[in-house]
Amino acid sequence: MENREFFYRRLHSLLGVVPIGIFLIQHLVVNHFAVYGPESFNKAAHFMHDLPFRIVLETFIIFLPILFHAVLGVYIVFVAKNNVQRYGYFRNWMFYLQRITGIITLIFIVWHVWETRVQIGMGTKDLDYSLMENILANPVMFWFYVIGVVSTTFHFANGLWSFLVTWGITVTPRSQKIATYATLLIFLAVTYIGIRALFAFV
Amino acid sequence: MAEDTITLVITRQDSPDSSPYEETFKVNYRKNMNIISALMETQKNPLNAKGERVAPVNWESNCLEEVCGACSMVINGEPRQACSTLVDKLEQPIRIAPMATFPVVRDLVVDRSRMFDSLKKVKAWVPIDGTHDLGPGPKMPEKKRQWAYELSKCMTCGVCLEACPNVNSKSEFIGPAPLSQVRLHNSHPTGAMNKSERLEALMEDGGLAGCGNSQNCVQVCPKGIPLTTSIAALNRETNIQSFKNFFGSDYAH
Question: Is residue B148 part of a domain?
Fold first, then answer.
């Protein structure tokens, strides 16, 4: 449709933070219960699993927003002609990394959803601590998960920086610079939560 | 003497449809030469480094003081104006190529029409025509005039489009320069009367939404225009405009 780009790009930016970003933090925090032992993790996972209207929540808060964000995101990656060799500025690198991590994150999420949520849904696997323990026992899969988590948290934190620009919140160079430091701290904090949970399974 | 010549490696193209090729020229060095005067040497004596007589190199230039934007070209990998680029400050051999974002007309001459079309699209002017004398316009606050003046330095040179990763043949994005002109004309007290028309033009396909915040534009702009500040300010303005349009507002002029 004509002249929908503005609306779709704004929606893409919004969905990346609300609800996807919020879901990401919630997901990693719930995973972090693994640090306190299998029982603690199972209790938290089952609480999430037994939430009322779970299928509706999963569809509208997780599945559809990520699907839209991914489809438009791949298109955005496709229309860029990256030029970091010639213009090696910090923000241009962030622009390039945002696109690379977007693709890595998409591959990771598809794989991760397939071997957890889809398997549980089909009844071939049970939702518990041992599911992740078995997956992460394989060193290749463990490092795939580490890369996947870091790529996702980078994409989220750097996306939060451009969200602030896209919505006209940070206009001055100074506010954008402070937002760079703030989103860096968010990246480090969220990555710590995610990675610490991964190590709890091995 | 060898030290009295400089070497130019020029990417040439005979016609818009022919393929580009590199040609080397040795020209006599003079003190304080700029790229324009080096290119003029190749016109005076159109012999390439092999001593063959070739067609003189074509380029565009007008003002020779970095205010018209006509002589933009990629010099040693950097898009800039040939007039304000001094030979003494460059590494040898000097590599000169046309900007890649624009269609080449011949040699270093590119067609920047897309930028002028974009300025028309976003209505980058202040309409004052009428059937009677409208009198003097409203005054502008001095503080605003100061930053608006910086935006008015844009010479449509195309360097920001050349550096932008989102301005390319796969994308419709009009690029940073015309975006910033919307902010300039919306900041003008009389121009502000048509504010929404310009903002709505930016909300069309190929407009503001094409920006991916690589911020190369603000790094390369020869006039130091705060292009990324303009883009962020326009993001805010277009968002508010789109809410006004959708939910309704008496102030959406």
Answer: yes
Tell me which architecture the domain covering A5-200 has in CATH: Up-down Bundle (1.20)
Are B77 and B151 found together in one domain? no
pLDDT value, residue B3: 61
**Which chain B residue has the Cα nearest residue A175?**
B229
Q: Position of tokens 């910033």?
A: B180
Query: Which residues in B lie closer than 8 A to residue A87 (C-beta atoms)?
Result: 163, 214, 216, 219-220
Contacts of A93 (CB under 8 A, 6+ apart): A84
Residue at a domain's end among B58, B82, B110: B110
Using N-to-C axis directions, what is the helix angle for A173-200 and B227-247, rounded to 10°? 80
Chain B residue with minimum CA distance to A10: B209
Structural domain contains residue B253: no
Contact A92 B216 (CB under 8 A): yes
Q: Where are the domains of chain A?
A: 5-200
Among the partner residues A3, A79, A167, nearest to B239 by beta-carbon distance: A167
Segments forming the whole domain that contains residue B196 = 113-247
Instruction: Give how far A147 is from chain B: nearest CA, Å.
Output: 24
Within a domain: B10: yes
Which residue among A3, A7, A92 places its CB closest to the CB of B214?
Answer: A92
pLDDT by position in tens, chain B (length 253): 456 899 999 999 999 999 999 999 999 999 999 999 999 999 999 999 999 999 999 999 999 999 999 999 999 999 999 999 999 999 999 999 999 999 999 999 999 999 999 999 999 999 988 888 888 889 999 999 999 999 999 999 999 999 999 999 999 999 999 999 999 999 999 999 999 999 999 999 999 999 999 999 999 999 999 999 999 999 999 999 999 999 999 987 7
CA atoms in the 13 A half-sphere facing the CB of B78: 14
Token pair of B252 as six digits: 């959406």
**Which helix (DSSP H) or strand (DSSP E) does residue B9 occupy?**
strand B5-12
Residues of chain B that touch chain A, judged by Cβ-Cβ distance less than 8 Å: 77, 163, 165-166, 168, 170-171, 173, 203-210, 212-216, 219-220, 226, 228-229, 231-240, 242
Q: Which residues contact B30 (CB under 8 A, 6 or more apart)?
A: B37
As beta bridge partners, residue B81 has B72
Check residue A196 and report its DSSP letter: H
Tell which of B110, B138, B153 closes a domain. Answer: B110
